[in-house]
Amino acid sequence: MKVAICEPNTKPxxxxxxxxxxxxxxxxxxxxxxxxxxFGHTSYGRLQHMLDNNLAEGFSVDTRTQKPDCIACxxxxxxxxxxxxxxxxxxxxxELTHIDLWGKYSxxxxxxxxxxxxxxxxxxxxxxxxxxxxxxxxxxxxxxxxTHLKTQGRKPKAIRVDRGKEFVNDDLKTWCRQQGIEIHMTxxxxxxxxxxKLCDFTLLFMISQxxxxxxxxx
Length: 218
Fold this sequence. Notes:
The structure is a single chain. With about 220 residues, this protein is α/β, with parallel strands linked by helices. It folds into 2 domains: about 50 residues, no CATH class; about 120 residues, Ribonuclease H-like superfamily/Ribonuclease H (Nucleotidyltransferase, domain 5). Helices cover about 30% and strands about 15% of the residues. It is built from 6 helices and 7 strands. A 5-stranded mixed beta sheet has the order 5-4-3-6-7, sandwiched between helices. A two-stranded antiparallel ribbon has the order 1-2. α4 packs parallel to α5. The two termini are about 70 Å apart. The relative contact order is 0.10.
């Protein structure tokens, strides 16, 4: 940088000699931990190697500071053993059914349906979907599904549902009690098994694709 030094309120003479000068801003030495973070969490061993061999200009380290364990580095290096490929189910096909109701959809189907109810067998993960016009039809659909299981030689013992009124009502509870079928409720309304939710997302994606195609056609 070239700097001309002159008195205040005076203009430099054309013959003034300009002397090149360099100004350096010296940063105080930083801790090992600070440099560890600045270099993207590189190891303290590499930082020590850089310092010993003077590999980086301006790399000033306060060597009196500690080299503490980095929580982020420790957590990122943690590993988890792979989950087993086979999952043992203690239930037999038809014994336990996960049930979830979805809706109201903004657009009714050709048959006027705006809801669907999803049945997922706990043992085989076999899924069945029924469409509904009204939310209040859910109880009857549950009865019909469980009755169908019995006619196919299955022995339904329990259903797992959320705490929605379409499932938690006197009509369905009385019918299940007469049939010897238990109702297992999740902790909160709207919470159901992960697999059931994945089926929901798949169906919703298919519905959205059909709707998108129809909009393009029109």
